[in-house]
Automatic annotation (TrEMBL):
Gene3D superfamilies: FAD/NAD(P)-binding domain (3.50.50.60), Succinate dehydrogenase/fumarate reductase flavoprotein, catalytic domain (3.90.700.10). The keyword Cell membrane does not apply. It comes from the Bacteria. It comes from Roseomonas haemaphysalidis. Residues 17-434 form the FAD-dependent oxidoreductase 2 FAD-binding domain. This is FAD-dependent oxidoreductase. InterPro entries: FAD-dep_OxRdtase_2_FAD-bd, FAD-oxidoreductase_2, FAD/NAD-bd_sf, Succ_DH/fumarate_Rdtase_cat_sf.
Amino acid sequence: MSILPAGGAAFEFTVPVLVVGAGAAGLTAALAAGEAGAEVLVLERDAVPRGSTALSAGLIPAPGTRWQRAAGEEDSPALFAADIMRKADGEPDPVLVGAATEGIAPTLEWLADSHGLDFSVITDFRYPGHSACRMHGLPSRSGEELVDRLRNAVEQAGIDILCDAQVTDLFADDGGCIRGVALRRPDGSMEQVGCDALVLACNGYGGNPDLVARHVPSLAGALYFGHPGNQGEALLWGEALGAGTRHLSGHQGHGSVAHPIGILITWATIMEGGIQVNAEGRRFSDESHGYSEQAASVLRQPGAIAWSVFDERIASIARQFEDFRQAEAAGAIISAPSIEALAEATGLPPAALRDTLERVEGCKAGQGKDRYGRAFEGVAPLQPPFRAVRVTGALFHTQGGLTTDGEARVLRPDGTALPNLFAAGGAACGVSGSRAEGYLSGNGLLTAVAMGRIAGAMAGGGPRHRNE
């Protein structure tokens, strides 16, 4: 992973726009560059495009969409931007926040109208930190469906995706202008491809233990639930080119990965009135703050394990997610007709579990305040049959990265832009600040899709976005 002098390259062919990475950011960038009239080639290291997108729930937050309006949900880019800034204590770049929150709704409607992605908005529960119901997803509520539909759209647009093509090096001239890339094929052979503009959409560095230990030491050695290909190439290439970086300690964790089978359990199980207890049957935090920061809280518990406890009403909401249905099918979701039966099935101390649940239900009934500060008033009580799932905390993806502007151009520390290099998704610094607590649900796909479109349009020579 190095920067090589462009004068030593022998490119087999040159394309106007080269995109590295076929996740949500890269595929959206390819569609936008193609719409701008450019010939595009997408390079993907895996045999089939998947990446971090496929491991997510595929939900994209967007304000002021036609789906929200149809549901009677009032929202705006300004309200969404305020939520992002509040969650991250004002750390994110307001320019990036504005570009993402203003661009995402038109982008989802463009993907729906021009490429057939049938989004809908989730209205039966609200994710932590959001002041409106603005999570949009495809019918299965899975990231796998999202990346498959984007890939199909790219192929239908006549854009080539070259899989099993791992980019190893970039070729640049003395001024930092990217002239092409070197890539390795599965048989070990090497190829060199030239380009007029390069979009880095190859995610972050969550799969690189050395970089995680350096930048996110609190999760060093934790379960990594992201894509193993996220090795930090974009960060390393950018640094070698003299690009700036920001918020490298920022990341998205998740405090609800079913253990040991490794299936994501939707946070609706918590936000609708469920709780988490440790092996002693005791709560240990305000679970409603967010699933990202809850990862470290779970990992601090005995055995790095917690139990999410909820009921059938909540399970019926969670079943809209493919991951939850898979967890049920795999037997990871325990059902019990009483607290005593639940304690027996989970191995939790019966007296402690009962005491914990009675305290929570008292708070819900207005009979006291929660010791951890969670607002339970007005939340529906848990009713038998109860449900529970054993979970652990995990690192999903990093949120820090290369510094970019509102046009997705990669910037040097002095604020000047590298000539023809763009970044989106995990390759670029996101809008979550420097801490796990700054991650607002959906921030990853928000910037992947919104800034992916901007990066592709700019690389292809077109307008930043159109407000359809």
